[in-house]
Specification:
CATH architecture: 3-Layer(aba) Sandwich
Oligomer: single chain
Distance between the termini: 17 Å
Structural class: alpha+beta
Helix content: 25-40%
Strand content: 25-35%
CATH class: Alpha Beta
Number of helices: 5
Number of strands: 7
Length: 173
């Protein structure tokens, strides 16, 4: 197994949208369609990553960079590849980009019932910061999570680079 991470491209949109539907949005109205994935791929303030085993997409992440925080919109790994470091590596890329962008924290929401996701993020030093009732289409509550970053660079040039997923220190491109 040779897992590689990289920036998502136009050809990845349908696979990412399908994985989002299957792995994240099951039982909910579908919001992360190919069109929404495309918007994120081409948004200069976002990064969409894909993890591949050979040519097969096995995981993905999408994040937005704001002035003071980075927001993870999506992160999922196919069940057969979970607990092998793929999610941790996707999150690591986002964390590195967030630090270069100069953001102070990384934030996201997970389904309150998703104990595996909550445990994963706890292991990655995230803390639960709140609860949003009915967040998921009025059907399920969300737990708000945050990880506060240390050693955040303040040079504005870093923000422009990170928004494009550029970090010469990353070796898994």
């Amino acid at each position: 197994m040779s897992i590689r991470l990289g920036r998502a491209r136009r050809g990845d949109m349908s696979a990412i949208a399908a994985m989002s539907r299957e792995l994240i949005e099951h039982g909910l109205p579908w919001t992360w369609t190919e069109c929404q994935i495309a918007r994120s791929i081409f948004d200069p303030d976002s990064v969409v990553l894909v993890a591949r085993d050979g040519r097969l997409p096995i995981g993905f992440a999408a994040a937005e960079f704001w002035n003071d925080h980075t927001r993870i919109n999506l992160l999922a790994v196919r069940p057969a590849y979970q607990r092998q470091g793929v999610g941790r590596d996707l999150l690591g890329w986002i964390k590195s980009s967030a630090q270069i962008a100069g953001t102070l924290s990384i934030r996201l929401e997970v389904r309150a019932s998703n104990s595996n996701a909550r445990a994963f993020y706890r292991k990655q030093c995230f803390i639960e910061t709140g609860l949003r009732m009915g967040y998921y289409a009025g059907q399920e509550d969300a737990v708000c999570l945050a990880r506060y970053l240390k050693g955040v660079p303040t040079d504005p040039a870093h923000s422009r680079l990170a928004r494009h997923g550029v970090d010469s220190r990353l070796t898994h491109v």
